[in-house]
């Protein structure tokens, strides 16, 4: 079964995606701050809340690389490494956020040639408040149900951010906020002191307000389903109006990672068989999809890397290099 939501928790989930603090969620929902804290803590075993900034604003490109054999080394700018299953055959998927001028260098650092790679322009996330605004979602008996007839008629595209000027303070804040959306600037300041980064609390606050927030696209919150009943699946398409399709996907719960360009789309999620049918028959078909991989499932094991952006920056993004040896990774 999916994660059950009562009406109060659903209010909190909607507010999380567009709030910068627990206090802001409390104000938007008229729910006491202590209750918001308790509800979020209850959900932590089933969800993850991340502060998400535009990859385009960071001047980084989402890159998905798939191998039919296990690579033995991973470059910097890698954010995850997973074992996958393509039509019954084992394969491996690496996802990175890579500076545009270093995409070729990044690929050359692998010790084997990829089976497939796609280069996105931007990413987007599930927007619960937008789902409700467009009347795509209904909460019935604790379940979020999607109205695909309404969804297919929507003609919108994700809002876009422009590439931004960056510095080490911006990137240090983003690194910590990505780990947990509601970490305070005071805590970030204390971490900076321990790491020898010379920045006052006031300086970090200035960079957060003036530089980081303009790059923010929202908080990602995944209401994960049990993987035994709803395995994670990977979908990669060449299609028409991929940006419009990415917007539609961002209104659907249980679709988590969406990367897109003008004619390519990648997403990972836990849709049910019925939801996949509805998605194909009422939404995808209007975009002339051509799948680039066959039926693909994600192994439960996952190696995730937190990019220390500030250490990859020296007046500009530095060239990628080998960062991880796959055989030494733990918790695979």
Q: What do these coordinates show?
A:
With 332 residues, this protein is an alpha+beta fold. It folds into 2 domains: 1-59 and 121-300, no CATH class; 60-120 and 301-327, no CATH class. It is built from 11 helices and 16 strands. The protein has helices at 7-16, 22-29, 33-43, 103-108, 128-133, 148-151, 168-179, 185-194, 201-212, 242-249, 273-282; strands at residues 49-53, 60-67, 73-75, 78-86, 89-99, 116-119, 122-124, 137-140, 143-146, 216-221, 233-238, 255-260, 264-269, 290-291, 296-304, 322-325. The strands form 4 sheets. Strands 2, 4, 5, 6, 7, 11, 12, 13, 14 and 15 form a 10-stranded antiparallel sheet that branches. A two-stranded antiparallel sheet has the order 1-10. A two-stranded antiparallel sheet has the order 3-16. α7 (168-179) crosses α9 (201-212) and α8 packs across α9. It is globular and about 55 Å long. The two termini are 26 Å apart. The model is unreliable at 328-332 (pLDDT under 50).
General form: globular
**Terminal residue distance:** 26 Å
Number of domains: 2
Order of helices and strands: HHHEEEEEHEEHEEHHHHEEHEEHEEE
Number of strand elements: 16
The radius of gyration is: 20 Å
Strand content: 25-35%
Give the biggest beta sheet: 10 strands, antiparallel
Oligomer state of the chains in this structure: single chain
- Provide the helix percentage: 25-40%
What is the arithmetic mean of pLDDT? 91
Low-confidence stretches: 328-332
Q: Structural class per helix/strand content?
A: alpha+beta
Q: Please give the count of helices.
A: 11
């Amino acid at each position: 079964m999916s994660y059950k939501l009562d009406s109060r928790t659903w209010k909190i989930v909607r507010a999380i995606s567009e709030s910068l603090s627990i206090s802001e969620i409390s104000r938007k929902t008229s729910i006491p701050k202590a209750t918001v804290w308790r509800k979020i803590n209850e959900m932590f075993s089933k969800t993850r809340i991340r502060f998400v900034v535009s990859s385009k604003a960071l001047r980084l490109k989402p890159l998905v690389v798939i191998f039919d054999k296990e690579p033995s080394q991973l470059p910097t700018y890698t954010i995850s490494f997973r074992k996958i299953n393509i039509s019954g055959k084992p394969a491996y998927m690496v996802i990175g956020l890579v500076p545009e001028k270093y995409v070729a260098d990044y690929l050359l650092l692998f010790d084997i040639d990829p089976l497939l790679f796609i280069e996105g322009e931007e990413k987007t996330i599930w927007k619960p408040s937008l789902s409700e605004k467009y009347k795509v979602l209904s909460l019935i008996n604790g379940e979020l149900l999607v109205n695909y007839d309404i969804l297919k008629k929507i003609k919108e595209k994700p809002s876009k951010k422009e590439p931004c000027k960056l510095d080490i303070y911006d990137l240090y804040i983003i690194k910590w906020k990505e780990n947990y959306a509601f970490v305070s600037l005071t805590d970030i300041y204390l971490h900076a002191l321990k790491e020898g980064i010379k920045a006052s609390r006031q300086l970090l606050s200035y960079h957060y307000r003036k530089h980081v927030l303009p790059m923010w696209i929202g908080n990602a919150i995944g209401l994960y389903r049990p993987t035994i009943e709803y395995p994670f699946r990977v979908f990669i398409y060449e299609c028409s109006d991929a940006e419009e399709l990415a917007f539609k996907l961002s209104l659907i719960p249980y679709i988590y990672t969406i990367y897109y360009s003008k004619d390519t789309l990648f997403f990972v999620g836990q849709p049910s068989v019925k939801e996949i049918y509805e998605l194909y028959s009422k939404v995808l078909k209007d975009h002339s999809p051509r799948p680039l991989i066959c039926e693909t499932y994600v192994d439960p094991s996952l190696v995730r890397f937190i990019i220390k952006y500030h250490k990859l920056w020296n007046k500009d993004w530095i060239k990628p290099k080998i960062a991880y040896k796959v055989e030494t990774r733990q918790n695979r």
